[in-house]
Design goal:
Layout lengths: L2 H4 L3 H11 L1 H9 L4 H14 L18 H6 L1 H15 L7 H15 L20 H5 L10 H10 L3 E6 L5 H13 L4 E2 L5 H4 L4 H11 L1 E8 L1 H4 L2 H17 L4 E5 L15 E2 L5 H14 L5
Parallel strand pairs: 1-2, 1-3, 3-4, 4-5
Length: 295
C-alpha cells in the first residue's frame, strides 16, 4: 500500500476542525492567522482536487484488528492518537482538545520537519511545521507554528481541580489539596502558586484559571465564602464556564446552608457536616477520573 493510498482525508479532518472549532480558531488568531480568510482557500483546494484515485484499497474488516492497518490508515491512526491524548489527560471522553492534538501528532508522524521538503510548494520547505502544512497547502492565513498550538493546548485545563474558598476555610482547602496532590492530581491551590502569582494581575489570572484552566472547580461554600470579594471573582468565572459548556464543572462542598448567588439549590452537593475530608477526596477522584465532563 503506497503512502498516498494509506493517508486519505487528513486535510479534510483538519478542515472540519478549523471550520467548526472556536478553540482552534482562537489559537490561530492569537498567533496572527485568520481562519475566516483561510477557509475559502481550502474550499478552492478541495474543488480543484483530482478525486479519480481516492478510493480505499484495503480490507475494511481488518482495519481495527490489524496492527499494521491501524498505523497506516488515517482514520484509525487519528483515533489512536486521540485516545492516547485523552488517556494522558485522564479524560473519559474524546473532545476538541484531543482531536486537535491527534491531527497534529498524525501530521508530524507522517511529515516530520525534515521531510516537509517533499511539498511541491517551496514556501512550505521550512525548519518547522505550521498549520498551513497540516492543511496541505501554502496559506499565509494559517502560518502558525505547531509548537505554539501545542503550547496553547497544554495551558487549557492545566489543572484537574481548582479549589475556590474563603480564607477562613483555608485549612479544609489545604487538606483536600494535599491529599489530591499526593494522588498525582494537578490542583490549583493558592499556596502552591505563590511564585506564579507574584506580580500578576490577579483579577485577570484568577478569572482565567477558574474559567478556562481546570477540569472541575471545588467550591467550598460557607458564610465566609459568600461575602468575600475574591471568591466572588472566582465564582463568577466558574459559573461562566459551567454555563458556556453546559457541564458539571462546579462541585459544591457545603460547610453550612448559606445561599450563593447563581448556585441553584437543585445542584447536587456534598455536605462536609455529613462526610469526612477523606470521603470527599475519594469522591473527587472518582469524579475527575470517571465523571462526565464536556471538553
Amino acid at each position: 500500500m503506497s503512502r498516498k493510498q494509506c493517508l486519505p482525508f487528513s486535510d479534510e479532518f483538519f478542515f472540519v476542525l478549523l471550520k467548526e472549532t472556536p478553540l482552534l480558531q482562537q489559537i490561530i488568531k492569537k498567533y496572527g492567522g485568520d481562519p475566516d480568510l483561510a477557509l475559502p482557500v481550502l474550499y478552492k483546494k478541495f474543488e480543484e482536487r483530482d478525486e479519480s484515485n481516492s478510493g480505499f484499497d484495503y480490507d475494511s474488516s481488518e482495519l481495527y484488528s490489524n496492527e499494521h492497518f491501524r498505523k497506516t490508515v488515517t482514520r484509525s491512526r487519528i483515533l489512536d492518537f486521540a485516545i492516547e491524548s485523552a488517556t494522558k489527560r485522564r479524560s473519559k471522553e474524546i473532545g476538541v482538545i484531543e482531536l486537535i492534538e491527534a491531527i497534529l501528532n498524525y501530521h508530524e508522524e507522517n511529515w516530520p520537519v525534515w521531510e516537509n521538503g517533499n511539498y511541491f510548494d517551496e514556501r512550505l520547505h521550512t525548519p518547522f511545521n505550521t498549520i498551513s502544512h497540516v492543511a496541505g497547502v501554502y496559506c499565509e492565513y494559517l502560518w502558525v507554528n505547531l509548537e505554539d498550538v501545542r503550547k496553547e493546548l497544554k495551558e487549557i485545563e492545566k489543572y484537574d481541580l481548582a479549589i475556590s474558598f474563603a480564607g477562613e476555610d483555608r485549612e479544609i482547602a489545604r487538606n483536600i489539596a494535599e491529599l489530591m496532590s499526593q494522588q498525582e492530581f494537578k490542583v490549583f491551590f493558592h499556596e502552591y502558586e505563590n511564585a506564579e502569582l507574584w506580580g500578576k494581575d490577579l483579577y485577570s489570572h484568577l478569572s482565567e484559571v477558574y474559567s478556562k484552566k481546570a477540569k472541575f472547580c471545588l467550591m467550598i461554600v460557607s458564610k465566609n465564602y459568600a461575602c468575600k470579594q475574591w471568591t466572588n471573582i472566582e465564582r463568577k468565572a466558574a459559573q461562566a464556564k459551567a454555563f458556556q459548556e453546559n457541564s458539571e464543572y462546579i462541585l459544591p462542598l457545603r460547610l453550612d446552608d448559606t445561599e450563593i448567588p447563581g448556585l441553584l439549590p437543585t445542584i447536587g452537593y456534598i455536605d462536609l457536616r455529613q462526610h469526612t475530608i477523606t470521603e470527599v477526596v475519594e469522591l473527587l477522584k472518582k469524579k475527575i477520573r470517571f465523571g462526565q465532563h464536556i471538553a
